[in-house]
Amino acid sequence: MPELMNSVYAGASLALLAVMGTTIVRAILGPSAFDRVLAANMFGTKTVLLLSLLGFLSGRPDFLDIALVYALVNFLSTIAVLRFFEGRPHSELQQSPDADPDANHSTPTTAMEE
Amino acid sequence: METFLILASTLCISIGVFLGITGAVGIFRMPNFFTRLHAASVTDSGCASMLLFGLMLQSGFTVATVKLCFILFFLLISSPTAGHALSKTALSCGAQPTPLPREER
Amino acid sequence: MELIIDITLLTFLGLTALAINRIDKLFCVIMLSGIYSLLCASLFVTMDAVDVAFTEAAVGTGIATVLLLSTIGATETEQRSAPHRPLFALLVVCVTGAILVYGTMDMPAFGDPNAPIHQHVAPRYVQQSQHEIGSDNIVTSILSSYRGFDTLGETVVIFTAGLAVVGLIGFRGMQKFGDRQRAAGVTQNEMEQHLVLRIVIKMFIPLILLFALYVQFHGDFGPGGGFQAGVIFASAFIFYTLMSGLDAAMRVVSPRTLSYIAALGVLLYGGVGIATMLMGGNYLAYNVLRHDPLHGQHLGIFLIEVGVGTTVFSVMVLIFFAFSSRKGLRQ
Asked: Could you tell me which chain B residue has the CA closest to the CA of A13?
């Protein structure tokens, strides 16, 4: 029953698209920089899954190569961002006009320029 | 046999989708960075494993299954590492896990 | 079904583009542009353009994010607001855009089967490619054989970009970073804090290199080819740099060696053309390379893909080294 599997793939793809939408909202909203990095990382993983599903939906297993590359570059960009954070002063990363009210800041939260 | 495979993979994909939606709701509504990190890790490990396993059941003994195994292996190792690195950097930059407010009785 | 996926992805794309435009914290913009590139790649996949999606993912999400991060590491992290409101510029842009749109109304519709490209060129490629070139992947046969000159031009462009970066920053500038670090007494202590990361990356680097080679040699049969393989190969080196520091990475392969490798790649590509001319054919006519045209095509495509891959790899790593060594100036 390939039609049943196709509809399963299609339903799962739509659900994954909804998840990706939520992730984008978090990437735009997220008060601290770490939220955005987290959202970008999660978006990459969801894209990998979406592509695998799309590959099976359209009957072309070539897409799995691309999915593997996406997983790789997603990991690369996350690690690069984190190494970038190491050289930054601590206060810059908690900034936003409406700072996260729950975070327990030990340093003043001013968006200072270098 | 084929019906069993279809049922099993549908079950796996459904569980995966449920875990994914759970993680999405979590990353949207959780109050703190560390709680959001936990929600995201639910999707990265649970949803990914279930979805890819369901796809593996569907593709039989072809090279596509081998590639799916590679993707699963890579995701299962790199996602927790990225989460660990994220939380370590966040801690070293001053973000702290907030204890939940206690109810005053 | 595909329609819903397309509409959703395009909506996300528009949303992300709007957000990139409005936010002026540059770090957030870089994260969003990584998401934008992933969305574009997904759209390419739904349009069945698999090779393009491959390259977009590898370059746009991996390398571009890393290079942009190095750039804002060396400059500022907030965008300065414009001192005036550019209303006149907006008017000029709108008028020009309107003229361009009016000009496109004469073009055939998207995917029109009566368009000239679908009458002569595309049927020839689609029908004759298997017979003349013998590779399963039509994109590779167009890229490497039918339009080999264009790919040679692209490779030379990438090489020129590497030349420009080396000319601006220079080998001595990159070496100075290592000296500065040694003078400041930066030890390897900070690297040992990230034990988990180091072990995981150490485990992955050989697999990534192998995968790059797989992509390189499978360009004939599936999505892949020289560009993508070069970028993935460079990603492995960038991983190593992120793990062990720029100094150690520059000891593995020095910028000077990288520039030689880049030149070697372009030389290989051009040299294949010269070889075919010496054997009696036109420039880059691979049929004459072997006794049998199909074998000649395979050999020619193999050699030029190796050339493209090496040039792309070395230029990417070179640009990354050059940008990262600028960060030391701020310390």
From this structure: B17
User: Which chain B residues contact residue A18 at CB under 8 A?
Assistant: 21, 24
How far is it, in rounded angstroms, from Cα C248 to Cα C179? Answer: 12
Is the Cβ of A37 closer than 8 Å to some Cβ of chain C?
Answer: yes
CB of B41 less than 8 A from some CB of A: no
B8 touches chain A (CB under 8 A): no
Q: Which residue has the tokens 């907006």?
A: C90
Task: Say which CATH number the domain at A19 has.
Answer: 1.10.287
Q: Helix crossing, A33-58 with C26-46: angle to 10°? A: 0
Our count of domains for chain A comes to 1
ipTM: 0.86
pLDDT the model gives residue C47: 86
Contacts of A30 (CB under 8 A, 6+ apart): A36, A38, A39
What is the longest distance spanned by two Cα atoms in chain A? Answer: 62
Please, which residues bridge with residue C25 across strands?
C78
Domain presence at residue B74: yes
User: At residue C93, what is the residue type?
Assistant: V
- What's the domain count of chain B? 1
**Shortest CA gap B105–chain A (Å):** 22
- The set of chains that have 3 or more CB pairs under 8 A with C is A, B
CB-hemisphere CA count at 13 Å for A113?
Answer: 8
By a Cβ cutoff of 8 Å, what residues of chain C touch chain B?
194, 196-197, 200, 203-204
Cβ distance A40 to C34 less than 8 Å, yes or no, reads yes
Q: Is residue A27 part of a domain?
A: yes
Q: What is the pLDDT of residue A105?
A: 39
- Asked, for residue A44, whether it belongs to a domain, the answer is yes
> Does A32 reside within a domain?
yes
Whether residue B43 lies within 8 A of chain A, CB to CB, comes out as: yes
| Tokens 């990914």 found at | B48
The closest CB to that of C66, out of A60, A68, A77, belongs to A77
Q: Tens of pLDDT along B36-49?
A: 999 999 888 999 99
pLDDT > 70: percent of chain C: 93
Q: Which residues of B touch A38 (CB under 8 A)?
A: 27, 33, 36-37, 40, 86
Q: What is the pLDDT of residue B104?
A: 60
The domain in which residue B26 lies consists of 2-91
Boundaries of domain holding A11: 2-94
Distance CA B68, CA B52 (A): 7
Compute the half-sphere exposure of residue C41: CA atoms within 13 Å on the CB side of its CA: 31
For C179-209, the pLDDT digits (tens) are: 666 555 554 555 567 788 889 999 999 999 9
Global pTM reads 0.86
Whether residue B105 lies inside any domain: the answer is no
A39 touches chain B (CB under 8 A): yes
The alpha carbon of C34 is separated from its chain's Cα centroid by a whole number of angstroms, namely 14
Spatial distance between the Cα atoms of A113 and C10, rounded to a whole number of angstroms: 35
What letter represents residue A105's amino acid?
Answer: H
pLDDT of B68 higher than 60: yes
